[in-house]
Amino acid sequence: MIYHAKSGHPGGSLSAVETLVTLYFDVMNHRPEQPDWKDRDRFILSKGHAAPVLYAVLAECGYTPKDQLNTLREMGSIYQGHPDMRFIPALEASTGSLGLGLSLALGMGLAAKLDNSPSRTYVMVGDGEIQEGQIWEAAMFGAYHHVDNVCCIVDYNKIQLDGWVKDIMGLEPLADKWRAFGWHVIQPDGHSIAELQAAFAEAAATKIKPTVIIAETVKGKGVSFMENNPKFHGVAPSADEYKKAMEELQ
Amino acid sequence: MATAKHELKLGRATREAFGDALVELGRENPNVVVCDADLSKSTYTHLFAKEFKDRFFECGIAEANMVAIGAGLAHAGKVPFVSSFSAFLLNKGFEQLRVTAAYGRTNLKAVGTHSGISIGEDGPSQMSIEDISLASSLAGFTVIAPCDEISMKELVKQAAHTWGPFFIRAGRAKCAVVYKPDQKFEIGKAIEVVPGTDVTVIANGLLVTEAVKASDILADEGISVRVIDMHTVKPIDREAIAKAAGETGAIVVAEEHLVDAGLGVRVAQVVGETNPCVMEFLGIENTYAESGTPDDLLDKYGMRAKNVIEKVKAVLARKKK
Questions:
Q1: Which chain A residue shows the shortest CA-CA distance from B66?
Q2: What's the CATH fold of domain A2-249?
Q3: Model confidence over A42-68: pLDDT tens digits?
Q4: Nearest-Cα residue of chain A relative to residue B108
Q5: How far apart are CA A6 and CA B169, in angstroms?
Q6: In whole angstroms, what is the distance from residue A154 CA to residue A129 CA?
């Protein structure tokens, strides 16, 4: 998709694959044939630049057509550069500007509580994204108001656009920060479906406190030359790179 | 010969009417929810909080988060009102209003109180003189600036009943009651408060009262002033503007807002597109105000009937040429 579009964010899409697959194919209660089902579990991709992985999963679920995935980023495509509800009504939010998704998720969580709905809301944020101050305003709010039906996943792939997170604005001690803000913290291998399944089960069973899953991931996971390579935060692969990547991913 | 004067008794502040409207909305619709950022006693959302504890969310001093929380509530089917001082709501929450409420297409109602310079002693950091400009720049938003307690209460209720993102501007100061209790209001439809033929004053907020006072004084001088309350800035009532421009041939726009970015420029655009005529503009002139009593500030910064009269005479002088 990103190769065809000649622009996009491969690294942060590949680091999130297992998390989204686990959520959409195992954890979440949702109905692709009824996207507006009131009691559905919701997912917000706050790190909207990883849209390709979300689009691939939504298409696999049957929300959107698979045969248009390669129209990513083209004018008129439903697969916009960042997730856009105007084009895909099944999306829970339009995202792309970082730092907003956790607050949106908490609002949805509050609404579910008011409605006595079993709906849970999942939101994925990037590690670079949580440098945004609003994330911590939201973190305070979520714990204070006991919004325990919200689960935040940090895709901790350790790389952002300008380089390594530790060299831009280090986050450590990250788990301690979330604990200090009143969140239940789980730190699975973000590429192990079994560990992610266990983490989501633990999150659902955790009451009063909201849960943050700090998923230990590798940027560009699965493609040797993209792994841990800041270059592939926001650059599409060349023809040769695309061929090699597809061979490795087969 | 002296003409009958309009009776303008001092009523309550528009923020108080907002608080009353919220309580009534809360009683009629269980989906109405309210968020505030540690100013509920000033914005009057505390009235709602008292009666509907479960549907009121205190967000602390974190306006950006509050706006996006509200958008999340809206996405999940609620009718959320988020409220703070207008200066903080629009400036600290602008990105969230833009991405999560406007672009994100939600049914969010943002209500900014303490607008304009008439908040008084707190000074310029708290005075919102650019909120109409900011809110009007959000695609898809409806922007409302009522002038008295009656219009505020009714328009807040209509906003709740109308799907889409709204910004509603309220003031701190007690203000005159312009309307009778049975007055009908419609979002996007201006109200001719005073009929007139020589010149039109288009105003909103506190300046409606000042324009009415000016029209009474000018009537004694034989000048017939039409006063229009443009309570909805966006979408603006093009028909009322075009009619006024065509029939009176001279327009003054008056607002408690930066003059180069508010109601005036929007009216001028419509005048230019329909019936071009001479215009004058009254507002805050490219500056920040200061501490003082509301009355002293409104005097010093030219927000009074006498200032409206000056502008009317200036525009009429140009009309005669």
A1: A103
A2: Rossmann fold (3.40.50)
A3: 999 999 999 999 999 999 999 999 999
A4: A107
A5: 45
A6: 9
